[in-house]
């Protein structure tokens, strides 16, 4: 039905789906902050697990739907392109936080650990693509390893958050993760959790619509799957991360903002696991081409720069943002130019 729509109605459907996803994500950010306080989970962990996973749901729907239709490149590039775009959004949020470099103010051991885990998880698909073409029941063994590594990372992130073995140096610009309302911490989290689940369902439906429109773009305009996946559907389905990050920064929930991006990116690696399961023509990793690996490398580089910034904790950089934010924007801009000039 969507594929048969004329261009203007097709674009309207695309815009409406994106709008619903973004509006749902704004409310989800507020609820995630409340849930973090009422469950005593902490902003960094709530951002990485709850908010990061929820705002990534639209993207995983796109990748799985593309894999089911047999377009491995679309599924893969949507996943890795989203990781690069979301890391860029964190650099953009740094512009909004005027007092100090965002990575300096949001000092949190759990965010450092999740960034390390993300680098590990992103390295596994590279190993799969460079290794032998294996598939058992249509699933590459690396997908199993990636999923188990993610679960181990979630557990260890919780350990790091609850019992950190080191503490960042506290400065006048360091924002502590304290409940916004001390009385609110004693209230039940059931209501916010149920409302949060409803918003997640809205984002999932929006993701399905976006995937249908993206596939239509590929077929109707003869666009490459890598281009549509990395620069259209990945960016659009990543808009919730941009909105939630900006909202979190405005609310002063800096650990939630940084944790949401890093945790969302970590969750996005599971797009590849789900896509490999959904792709029935063998290993997903051996069905993609070098352009998809290019965006994976870009996301890996941007994550490494972000981790360096979290460790360096520069107070003020060029234009009041950290040097890591400048480098992240430069890396993504270069990758964008290269992609568009192929």
Overview of this structure, please?
With 342 residues, this protein is mainly α. The chain has a single domain (2-163, 189-340), classed as A middle domain of Talin 1 (Up-down Bundle). The chain has 13 helices and no strands. It has helices at 7-38, 43-55, 57-68, 72-96, 102-105, 109-130, 141-162, 190-221, 225-251, 254-268, 270-278, 290-312, 323-340. Helix 3 (57-68) runs antiparallel to helix 4 and helix 4 (72-96) runs antiparallel to helix 10.
**Rg estimate, integer Å:** 19 Å
What do the pLDDT scores average to?
Answer: 83
Helical content stands at over 70%
The helix count comes to 13
Largest sheet: none
Can you tell me the overall shape? Answer: globular
Q: For the record, what CATH class applies?
A: Mainly Alpha
Q: How do the SSEs run, as a string of H and E?
A: HHHHHHHHHHHHH
Task: List segments where confidence is low: pLDDT < 50 over at least 5 consecutive residues.
Answer: none
Beta-strand content estimate: under 5%
> In the CATH hierarchy, what is the superfamily?
NCX, central ion-binding region
CATH topology: A middle domain of Talin 1
Distance between the termini: 32 Å
How many discrete structural domains? Answer: 1
């Amino acid at each position: 039905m969507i594929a048969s729509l004329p261009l203007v109605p097709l674009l309207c459907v695309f815009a409406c789906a994106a709008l619903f996803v973004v509006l749902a994500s704004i409310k989800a950010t507020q609820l995630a902050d409340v849930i973090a306080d009422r469950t005593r989970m902490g902003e960094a962990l709530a951002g990485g697990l709850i908010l990061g996973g929820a705002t990534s749901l639209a993207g995983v729907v796109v990748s799985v739907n593309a894999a089911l239709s047999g377009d491995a490149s679309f599924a893969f590039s949507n996943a890795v392109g989203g990781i690069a775009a979301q890391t860029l959004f964190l650099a953009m949020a740094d512009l909004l936080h005027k007092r100090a470099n965002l990575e300096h103010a949001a000092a949190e051991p759990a965010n450092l650990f999740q960034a390390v885990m993300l680098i590990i998880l992103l390295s596994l698909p590279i190993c799969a693509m460079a290794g032998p073409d294996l598939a058992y029941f249509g699933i590459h063994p690396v997908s199993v390893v990636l999923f188990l590594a993610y679960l181990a990372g979630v557990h260890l992130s919780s350990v790091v958050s609850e019992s950190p073995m080191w503490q960042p140096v506290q400065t006048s610009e360091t924002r502590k993760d304290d409940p916004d309302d001390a009385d609110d911490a004693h209230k039940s989290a059931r209501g916010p959790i149920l409302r949060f689940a409803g918003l997640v369902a809205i984002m999932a439906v929006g993701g399905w619509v976006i995937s249908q429109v993206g596939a239509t773009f590929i077929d109707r305009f003869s666009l490459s799957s890598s281009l549509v996946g990395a620069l259209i559907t990945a960016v659009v389905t990543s808009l919730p991360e941009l909105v939630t990050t900006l909202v979190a920064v405005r609310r002063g929930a800096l650990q939630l903002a940084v944790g949401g991006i890093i945790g969302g990116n970590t969750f996005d690696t599971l797009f590849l696991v789900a896509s490999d399961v959904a792709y029935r023509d063998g290993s997903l990793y051996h069905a993609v081409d070098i352009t998809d690996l290019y965006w994976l490398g870009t996301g890996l580089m941007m994550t490494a720069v972000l981790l360096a910034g979290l460790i360096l904790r520069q107070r003020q950089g060029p234009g009041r943002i950290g040097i890591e934010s400048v480098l992240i924007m430069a890396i993504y801009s270069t990758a964008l130019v290269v992609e568009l000039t192929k």
